């Protein structure tokens, strides 16, 4: 019996003429140096931060080289697939402004000429290449039952030899075609395995984009190509897909380095051009005890991309942070080029940390503070409206009915050489400005901390004297402050800090203490943005109302 007869028996309705796929998916007409990369997740749930970082890099590099970024769904392991898993992935990418040029755009739709982009819909393609390998004597049906494989692994462990289906351990490797055909006709279940031409003692080199040259043994394992359900395993499917989709660069986790000999061998025997591989270190965090560990979907809320939406951290700030951990030289570049777009940066795979990236939420929040501080008040207002509409309906209703007022609040100390950096996220803003809204200020729960001046009568006298005899809405900032100093002189407080420091015993306090009383009475806080601006926005009537709280015995 010939290999072709065996192949025809296994795949009677499939052509082994794979040239039709080479013609259907031709080389892409792209500029020299253009990168074609893909994000190829399994539909197993939300995109976690490690996957988002990978997708971000895979999306970024083609954008800067006039290349292609596509989304492929690797769903050949049906046990891991979850309901709406594809839509969840698409939404997570879209929410972070990671746009695809080709690939899956919904559970039922896709764009591009190199599809289908869902592996379970490419079954006939994999079968065609598997049939070709059987005809060439490079693949064969394996009839070993699970208990036989388990027994083999136990024997290998006992003998302390390598684990795997290879050499003399590959029981079905040297069956004759007559024996194989007889077993198939008898209804015995089987899978399709690679007949590896490799020798373990030989060495191969992986020229890793991130790690440089890595030497490892050549593959001699007869790995599974097609499972019992007729679908391929990852090794076989991704090699065929990356070839036919004309992928130039593959980024993936460092856990796949050990699989490279299998993949390289498959590219070779299928006569495909191998893409460039880059293996990324894991995303880590510092644990409570100071040790590093892998960022965990189960333990760490920041591992889920939904965390950033719920916190209201701007997407562009997250992207800036991702780039700082993706390329170690980006932060210095950004400091030198603050007005340039992120896409002006020249990405360097050699600047990716080999040892993995440390995910630091505090650093992300600092980047976010800096980013928000550079937005206009109008931009912050619109983003705040969008955030609160979903996550804080009460505050949304307040600010949507007070657009100009809220915008003026957000503009305090914004248009200046060094703008304030109070807000690390849109969820932060309410905590910083709630006192400016009467609906929130007069809720009966406010507490006041006047710092040094605690006597109620003294506080009342300061406030009444100031509002009745000194404060005028028309005053500019310089006149406004001079009047506060005049109030100090009248009430026995030092208006000059130098005099106070030289002879503190001559005064009841100083101008800072008086300012604090006014500030706390208006806001409940001893630390706020510019008091003059706050008072201009509140207006004299509302200032008076807030001061009158202290006239009630």
Q: How would you classify the helix and strand content by structural class?
A: alpha/beta
CATH class of the largest domain: Alpha Beta
- Beta-strand percentage range: 5-15%
* Mean pLDDT across every amino acid position: 94
3D architecture notes:
By secondary structure, the protein is α/β, with parallel strands linked by helices. The chain folds into four domains: 3-15 and 123-280, HUPs (Rossmann fold, 3-Layer(aba) Sandwich); 289-373, Glutamyl-trna Synthetase, Domain 2 (Glutamyl-tRNA Synthetase, domain 2, Orthogonal Bundle); 377-441, no CATH class; 456-551, Arc Repressor Mutant, subunit A, CATH 1.10.10. Helices cover 44% and strands 10% of the residues. The chain has 24 helices and 14 strands. The strands form five sheets. Strands 1-2-3-4 form a four-stranded mixed sheet. A three-stranded antiparallel sheet has the order 5-6-9. Strands 13-12-14 form a three-stranded mixed sheet, with no helix packed on it. The longest helix is centred in the N-terminal third of the chain and has 15 residues, at 49-63.
